[in-house]
Amino acid sequence: MSASRAASLTLVVNPFGGGGRGRGAAARAARVLRAAGREVALHETRAPGHARALAATLPLDDDGVLVAVGGDGTFHELCNGVLARTRPVPVALVPAGSGDALARDLGLDGRDAPERAARRVLAGARRALDVVRVTCGAEQLFAVNVLGFGLVGDVAARAERLRRLGPRRYRLASLLCVLRARPRTARVTLDDEVFDGPLHLLFAGNTRHTGAGMRLVPEADPSDGWLDVLLVPGVGRLALLRLLARVDRGTHLAGPLVVARRARRMTWDVPDGPALNVDGEVWAPAADADGRRRIRAEVLPGALELLA
């Protein structure tokens, strides 16, 4: 980037997420950026997938920066679009969603988050952001937050149907799914370690937070080149309810119900049907001819540059 010219900033704004907070957050952030003399362009999304398309195709200067204004789903789409470009560009986040998991990891929660996020963009400090490449057959997605199967996918699907409830939907969805939980048979390989049998939950976190502030993997770091993984085998619903309560207290990793590992690569072989969770979004890739899905996940260290 030329020393005489500041980077242009393109804000990709989700006006629907977080109870409609996107436009207001974008206006507040743009006010701070323009007051500092920065060039700002705003583009609103119109439907799911539009943020990804914009991030992949918007013409940008060589020193341009793409800023997601929305929740984890908007940032997920923006990052997938950026990684489809011939040359990925730096990214940033102005939180305006229901969960804002990555924003919590970055310390960007609170009422003044749009202004603080804008000031961080102006400061120009950058960090490497790990990305997880997730493939199933010919289909591919990139995750920056979480991915999982079992209860993790069930909660994502249920929370989507409860979107009108805002951030509370994650807790309610978790409770409802635990009460109806049933284990699924899966074969999971973490690097060279294999787990084979009934599982209630497979959760891999690139960030500490998920949903509206839940910290299933409190030691995760999105810049360390690792996935923090939790597996919960098939147990009774009462045990799952106790585990859910321990998650709220942050003591769940000490219990006997959880298998905690770190890995750079992960594969799992699961039956067709149950939803998968990728950055809080429900993903249903096509099954093989035998009715199963074989998922591969690999950490790409520092694949994106984050203004944070």
What CATH architecture of the largest domain would you give? Answer: Sandwich
- How much helix, percentage-wise, in residues? 25-40%
Per the CATH scheme, the topology name of the largest domain is Tumour Suppressor Smad4
Q: What's the mean pLDDT score?
A: 89
Major beta sheet summary: 11 strands, antiparallel
How is this structure best summarized?
This protein is an alpha+beta fold and 308 residues long.
Describe the structure.
This protein folds into 2 domains: about 10-125, Probable inorganic polyphosphate/atp-NAD kinase, domain 1 (Rossmann fold), CATH 3.40.50; about 135-300, Tumour Suppressor Smad4 (Sandwich), CATH 2.60.200.40. Helix 7 packs across helix 8 (about 170-180). The longest helix has 14 residues, at about 20-35. By secondary structure, it is an alpha+beta fold. About 30% of the residues lie in helices and about 35% in strands. A hairpin with a 2-residue loop joins strand 5 (about 125-135) and strand 6 (about 140-145). The model has no long low-confidence stretch (mean pLDDT about 90). The protein starts with 8 loop residues before the first strand and ends with a strand. It has 9 helices and 15 strands.
